[in-house]
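Quick one, tokens below. Sequence please?
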């Protein structure tokens, strides 16, 4: 019965997924050139250190449901004060960057976890944080990272870690 329900759910969601792929250029045949993360994010880190902001496109699914792969972009700025709940770009090993959320501190160590991750964390030093997200750019709108409604949703999402698996399953089926 469970397998039958899953087949029906997949069948029902096929038009939604196909429309999502068409909207995001997955099936359009367009060729997109991508710069390797190590190069692009290293350049973004350098620009932020020089006092500029950097806007990058999101790659990957580890920040779902708040950021979506190749749909959303973020504006990064130099970190003044790091806080639990901030989304940051951090270099966790040489030339390996992640855009994840701070979940805790341990001295100079910053513990990171993606919103879409069910387990597993990354650790970096405070000085390895290249930038903090100040704006979330979605098609047709901009959301400030300091928005109280967004901050409330992020806190709620962190508390829902035990059932995140099920919530993400439903989210993936709907988009």
């Amino acid at each position: 019965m469970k397998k039958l329900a899953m087949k029906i759910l997949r069948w029902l969601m096929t038009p939604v997924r196909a429309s999502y792929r068409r909207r995001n250029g997955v099936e359009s045949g367009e060729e997109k050139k991508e710069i390797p993360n190590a190069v692009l994010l290293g350049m973004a880190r350098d620009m932020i250190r020089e006092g500029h902001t950097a806007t990058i496109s999101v790659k990957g699914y580890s920040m779902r449901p708040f950021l979506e792969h190749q749909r959303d972009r973020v504006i990064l700025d130099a970190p003044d004060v790091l806080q639990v709940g901030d989304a940051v770009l951090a270099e966790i090993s040489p030339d390996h960057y992640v855009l994840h959320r701070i979940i805790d501190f341990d001295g100079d160590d910053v513990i990171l976890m993606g919103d879409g991750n069910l387990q597993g964390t990354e650790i970096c030093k405070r000085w390895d944080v290249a930038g903090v997200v100040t704006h979330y750019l979605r098609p047709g709108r901009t959301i400030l990272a300091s928005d109280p409604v967004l901050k409330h949703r992020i806190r709620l999402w962190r508390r829902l870690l035990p059932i995140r698996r099920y919530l993400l399953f439903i989210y993936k089926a709907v988009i």
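Residues 1-31 form one domain. The chain has four helices and eight strands.
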